[in-house]
Amino acid sequence: MSVFTGTLTADLLLGDVHSLKEKRAVVRPIVAELRRHFAVAAAEVGDPDLHRRAQVGVATVAGQPAQVTDVLDACERLLADRPEVTLLSTHRQLFSETD
Length: 99
What we know:
Blueprint: E1 4-14, H1 20-38, E2 41-46, E3 53-62, H2 65-81, E4 85-96
């Protein structure tokens, strides 16, 4: 049996946000939705001091690389469809147990 791990890092531009408190109010529900809908590990991973930018990291594990890709695709679509943020870029990595 093989194990594949995938990661997605998304760079987000936040909309009408003027403080770090407002940033948390936007980012936390997004991270919670990713975790709830896709059973992934998700967290804010970068740009902690910038109030209009956020980086969200997502990780998932599956037995097939296609399963990992499908989950990361769905997570990326969710981020792209959120009206309060603009998805600027993403970076993906896929690891197998032999890497």
